[in-house]
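Students often ask why we bother predicting the structure of a whole assembly rather than each chain alone. The short answer is interfaces. A chain on its own may look different once its partners are present, and contacts between molecules only exist in the joint model. In this exercise we take three input lines together and write out one structure for the complete complex. Read the inputs first and try to guess which parts will touch.
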Amino acid sequence: MSTHRIAGKGRFDHGGPVRFTFDGKRYEGRRGDTIASALLAHGVHLMGRSFKYHRPRGPVCAGTEEPNALVETSRGKGRFEPNTRATAQELREGLEVRSQNRIGSLAFDLQAVNDLVHPLFSAGFYYKTFMWPRSFWDRVYEPVIRRAAGLGRAPDAPDPDRYAHRNLHTELLVIGAGPAGLAAALAAARAGAEVTLVDEHAEMGGALLSDPDVVIDGKPAWDWLAAALAELDRLGVRRLTRTTAIGYYHQNFVGLCQKLTDHLDEPPEGAPRERMWHVRAVRVILAQGALEKPLVFDGNDRPGVMLAGAAQTYLNRYGVLVGDTPAIVTSHDSAYHAAFDLADAGAKVAAIVDVRAAPGEGVLVEARRRGIEVLTSHTVTGTNGRLRVKSLRVAPVSGGRVGAARTIACDCVLMCGGWTPSLHLFSHTKGTLKWDEALDAFLPDRSAEECHIAGAGRGLWGYGAALADGAEIGVTAARALGLDAEAAAPVVERDRTGTGETFKELPTDGDAGRKRAFVDFQNDVTAKDIRLAVKEGMRSIEHVKRYTTNGMATDQGKMSNVNGLMIASDAVGKAPPQVGLTTFRPPYTPTTFGAFAGYHRGRHFEVTRRTPIDPWAEAHGAAFEPVSLWRRAWYFPKAGEDMDAAVARECAATRGSVGIFDASTLGKIEVQGPDAVEFMNRMYTNPWTKLGIGRARYGLLLGEDGYIRDDGVIGRLGEDLFHVTTTTGGAARVLNMMEDYIQTEWPDLKVWLTSTTEQWATVALNGPNARRVLEPLVEGQDLSAEAFPHMSVAECTVAGFPARLFRISFTGELGFEINVPARHGLALWEALMKEGERYDICPYGTETMHVLRAEKGFIIVGQDTDGTVTPDDAGLSWAIGKKKADFVGMRSLRRPDLVAEGRKQLVGLMTEDGDVKLDEGAQVVADPEQALPMKMIGHVTSSYYSAALGRHFAMALVEGGRDLEGRDVFVPTPEGIRRATVTTTAFYDPAGERLKV
Amino acid sequence: MTMHDTRMPDATVTIEDLAPDARFSLRVGADGRAAASETLGLDLPVRVGDVARGAEERTALCLGPDEWLITAPAEAGGAIARAFADLYDRTPHSLVDVSDREVTVRVTGPEALTLMTIGCPRDLARLAPGRAVRTVFDGATVILWRDAEDTFRMDVWRSFAPFVRDLLEIGRAEIAAGL
Amino acid sequence: MLLIHCPYCDETLPEAEFAYAGEAHVDRPADPMALSDDEWAAFLFIRSNPKGVHAERWRHVHGCARFFNAERDTVTDAFVSTYRAGEPRPGTKCSAGAPAGDDMKVAAE
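Now the answer. The structure tokens for the assembled complex follow.
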């Protein structure tokens, strides 16, 4: 079956097979295989179709930078993922893999017609095409483009997996466990540093996993690796595999995404699929190595064309020979080692085509020894083969002229255009890069963080250099942590050093305009596209990138950026650093939404605050509504009732007898101290000095800008003690604002604030029978109108619990609010319900509360105000202490724009037809006959049906509203224009007779 | 006293809801600290995060430059409130009963620290046993006590407690899964 | 996510415990009613918004609950200093009796 598995090669358990399917066909792989390595073992290179042209594609690399081999995977019910990188996803038993971005089969994709008409899709085609006729857009272009756009299908079921989160503080974070990272971690850990070492692969070792022949400290590479990992474990280094550092933020804050279960046949119960680590490190070492670059030539994207280093990895790590007759095309010595490894494993190397004139002498000797033909100063002018490369056309280049071509038969092409230091994370931190002329690469320059870069990431090539540098940097980091450390660089034999050159697209014969030399495989960007972009006026690499989409795919141009830059700089006629490098942004590799969301999904999406009485409401069928973070009982429907019916019944019951309401969410602040009254005078618009102990007052709070911020009833419990209430949503904000003034503006005031919102459960009783219900339960306070008039407060006992009792009313009825310690809230509620039985006590929710207050014209801050409403606008001028010298916002009330004519004022609106309900938010106009767009003079803020009035009514903010009283305005609605009369907001019992009991 | 116990035979971390203590928020300026200390019967600590322990299981945690959390056995609350009421005229301060504001959950076991890291961004390894801080856990303000190397206690505002408790249970299951 | 040193707790702690609170050293006038409309509007609405070191307020809201001041570079986001409310801005020379104009010069490191 596995036609290309080489006995004795590879790092994995050669035991039982792992079964999986690809496009419905069954395959077997080995434990530790990736999808790509397992398919390649069966000689399958064709794994996907390209994004734009639907060209057949196979894997180019063996890591997470893969642009081509993107597949759909299914790990069981609901566990579907598009765009999985076949080169990174490990096999697990029963994994279902499907190719994507095709109509028809993978081998015969109907959309491949795009490839035949490729001139239509040149750079910037979407700026030029689909422009006309206009009428085609909605019905033709957009549906077709939508169908064709994007890669893969979105999952259509909720993700059943869990995602986890942890915070980690560590002294030293080493990112990348290749030779440099391992040496750094070892050096620092030996010095006593607390080290965390992470690597995105299933195994640590990096390039060592692909180069077993190297000898380190006298040991074969893999033996040295095993000993190094064992030592790290002994030293207590925290090692995380399958863990990608996705982003590097301020002050050494690094995001790690760890894959925990995707590779497991049967994940343990309760185990999360992935975990996002928020790491804070004192020092960071970036040892991410370098990424191999493709060469840019016609047909460099055919299945079977891949990076030389990838072929070496497939052979040595996975025991897979990617082809029997490989041809090598290179501009770097490293590809020779790949050729040698494949040749030694039994492949017949067709030829090594070197773009350079003078490869390293050492590799030429080795090639000769193996009888491999080396063609120096040669170029590739094309490849052949539809679903798999079959041959290569090569030609000598001399003095810039391409000579006669010959064809070389092969079944795979291994290319290497040199190596790009992987500096994405470094760039996230705004670390600067500088162009290195000798290496033709960007290297790290100035660091913005406490971080170090080791090994190939800073352009060092070869195992000896990487290990020595890693050890040195590890010591540097340990010393920076205040530790004594000595570097001990391992001795490396049979090292694989070498040099290379960086090229733009390879020279070719014939019409360059007809060549399909790909730079960005995932976005199907060719060298020609980049040259066209420059020709059409793009000069900066940022413009070229956006015009061509080069480097904008999910791989963020890990392979294409430098090749694109070399071509663009050639076309512009400037050196690469002057054309620039595009910005790398997090995440380093595509990351699941689940990993970012972590625990915050489903029932744990957001805090839901519940009152002590919430369980009763739930048990009694309440409908709930969210109010800031709280869920509050909205209304209590009886069987067969809809919301309107329930609310009308609750309103009538409260006005007719007695209603009970859970007001526990109201913000409460204890204000205490010798300067409490002075503080209250300064914060609130109202005067407080003469408020007697045991009395309460409505308080209005402004911002310094003069606009209403909050309101609530405030009781004076002692000379120096106030019980302040705030709106539900405003509680935290108001406390913050008060603390701000006390701490920073008036530190001389001796007054302290304590939030008691959750100390107290609060139950409101309203209605003509409220006193009768309450009285039998109260000890220590006479509730008669004389002893306890409206706007009173007392400390007493209610239902046996210590209580703060207010006589106040937000409904216009006789009302009480009883505060008891929260643990007793439910018991208090139940006692009142029992006592109220004979008065048909009616529990009501926030909707009825809103209706009853609106009938009295009481505002809700945030509903009838919007942050631009002054006390006068809201008709609350009476709440301003006329003799006060100062309070927060007072000066602003004289600002010219706040005293100007024509401000929006809160008024009542009565529709001509009482059955018509205006929508909250509906706009108000003066003249419905005016031309569009009409001048809007205000909007509806509150609108309800009133059981007491027997009709609908509304409140609105209307320009110069109070002067319009008795006049008609108009409210355009989708159902037609409604006429309404402007009224006062005192809709019900305007004289307040019902409170005088 | 343990009210609700989710102890599992092989659990490496245990989560328990604790019965309420008497808890007060004490606010007093530097000029009144000595008098308040005397009233309480212990020296109010001045470094944020320090806890002082006095007779009758009274503790005072310094939460801010002029703010302490006083705890005592539930039945001792009345005496503390009365003592401070008597102090007020001589030494103005604010003592507010917050016994019902928060509920307390305790996390113990070898993996207790790991469990706390799923919601708390602080470096808890640096929170020494015996100290306590106000901090944030999964977005909720909490007072986090480290009673011992492997024992944490969190005071959570009552309405946030189910949410915090929920995350602790998710985390416990995750730790039990071993990944 | 930043690390912020709280000058009251004397600890360097995660940003998640803190809340931003606007520009620092914008004092509320002692007698607002004595100000002209323009002066009052300037107090309410005009802020410096520098590119570079900015004096700003933070509150250790999930901690000691104190408001304090900080100097932070708006280009790099790096904190230069944090100090208690009411203390002068570090690097200003008001205490040394320098001319008032020097108040705006800050020793940025």
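Check your guess against this: Strands of chain C lie at 3-6, 11-14, 19-23, 53-59, 67-73, 79-84.
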